[in-house]
Amino acid sequence: MSLARAEIAQQPDVVARLLERERSTLRALAAELRRRRPRYAVIAARGSSDNAARYAQHVLGRILRLPVVLATPSLHTLYDAPPRFIDAIVIGVSQSGASPDVVSVVAEGARQGALTAAITNDPSSPLAAAAAHVVDLGAGEERSVAATKTYTASLAAIAALAAEGDPGLAAEVERLPGALAAQLALTGAAGAAVDAAAGWERLTVVGRGAHYATAFEAALKVRELAGIVAEAFSPADLLHGPIATAGPAQPLLAIAPAGPTEGSMRELVAAARERGAHVAAIGHDPALGDPFMELVDVPEWLGPAVAIVPAQLLAVGLAERRGVDVDAPFGLSKITLTR
Amino acid sequence: MSLARAEIAQQPDVVARLLERERSTLRALAAELRRRRPRYAVIAARGSSDNAARYAQHVLGRILRLPVVLATPSLHTLYDAPPRFIDAIVIGVSQSGASPDVVSVVAEGARQGALTAAITNDPSSPLAAAAAHVVDLGAGEERSVAATKTYTASLAAIAALAAEGDPGLAAEVERLPGALAAQLALTGAAGAAVDAAAGWERLTVVGRGAHYATAFEAALKVRELAGIVAEAFSPADLLHGPIATAGPAQPLLAIAPAGPTEGSMRELVAAARERGAHVAAIGHDPALGDPFMELVDVPEWLGPAVAIVPAQLLAVGLAERRGVDVDAPFGLSKITLTR
To answer: For residues A309-324, b (16+ Cβ closer than 10 Å) or e, as one string?
Structure first.
């Protein structure tokens, strides 16, 4: 079995361990949030961690009512013009904790006296050293180049932070490891979807609300593992121009679970089909796509932590079908030291 | 001549008129910013206006040191969970001023007592009605589906707002119409670039810092006008996975002017060439790409307002070459009423 498949299978255990071990850290951070009442959050991240940041933008906004700035590291590293972080919490998300640009944003937050936190798989990393609060993902070494278990662990950490102090929501988070296990069992090897998608050369992934993050992470997995040119949009952004290239040669993957986003996803699927595009879907209604990958039932706000699983398995399956070395595809390296 | 070409040619006049007519509005808004000292800005926008918002994120951060949240309209329109906008300025950018999702974010800002502003080409629009300060782009009706003059006008309005109260920067903004005219003259019909790009079926556009916005807007123009599947990344984001699909079939357009971002753009160009990708460039050093489209000299922070011109002309030229109806390409409509 590839490392990627092994790490995908580890996700229920990784999330269960995280929720257990990091409870007191998350509780302390939530207490600081209540005490200092930041006006907004700044999140610095790259790659899959940036997609976790997209989830954080939704969930911290929705549950804590906290607006989230996705940081612009170049203002720190190239222009020497860091924004003022007054009444802010500054969070860095990085599997390795080694990205200089992510570290520089959190270090600047600390220098300005902001509340700071790191979400990382390496508690001895420069990112962890720069932050006052360190959430250790504790996912074990992630050896596959494509991030899988550290992505779901980051989502679980963010969800648990948002749920702190609300017993109902916290109980929902506690059930996440079981939901992940159920999703892995339900999706299996995703063989039918891999068969149906075998001819894809490019792909548009669409999602909204909570699943805007899922769309971006699904596109990134399909791209880095299978070498398919996959891109992500919200339905609104797609309709504002990029839908010009929809058609038979550009299949679409809709992240369309039941819930508040289903209506606009249905409209988008209809518009894409009108243009002749082939539509696949991850969700609850098989009428929305073919191939269709069914989701287990979880509270809608936690959906992204399980909805990425079918996309991961589809990406790995397509990569294997194409003879890609799934653990080190296309000469990518695990840590990208961008400034 | 197509409407698109006519509107591209109007850009120097449109920007000159805007800077003249909206001076007092921008001055009043800048005075409010100094008086109320918001901790951060929220910007709601879609399509090309969202790319103007990306420029605002850079410039308001760099010059006013204001962190910028790019709004998540679905929290307002689908989830009934708007974030708290305390000590914020909330800005909507929309050519038509009619997008319900953009209006809803600004209206929520007003409801919560935040400072609000609209940047729109229709001062009688719902967006203008929702905002306390209205910057009227005054670009004249934009009849081509692809936004061109309203995009550069939005950038000029944002730059002028950032420069208010700094005579040196304000003088630089005043020279923008001349720079736009010079850029139009320098690029001409972009015939050599259109010839060289005639075979492109897909494209990756890369830019950083100030030109992160340029990369997204250039990709959108090429996509909606020429029907080429074009996508945009920062160098760092591209290196974190998506570069997996770089190669001979995926040309790259580098937005690489002289200045702070040139070093990381050079590294990116080298990495893409190593993978066999064909690299075109917009910038100052012809060695960076072929075809190469030269930029006139403007202060680096104002570069995006002129660097989009060669991309607009390339997109229109490619569309004409392909027999696309450039004023109403691919069944797109001018106003997209997404919620």
So the answer is: bbbbbbbbbbbbeeeb
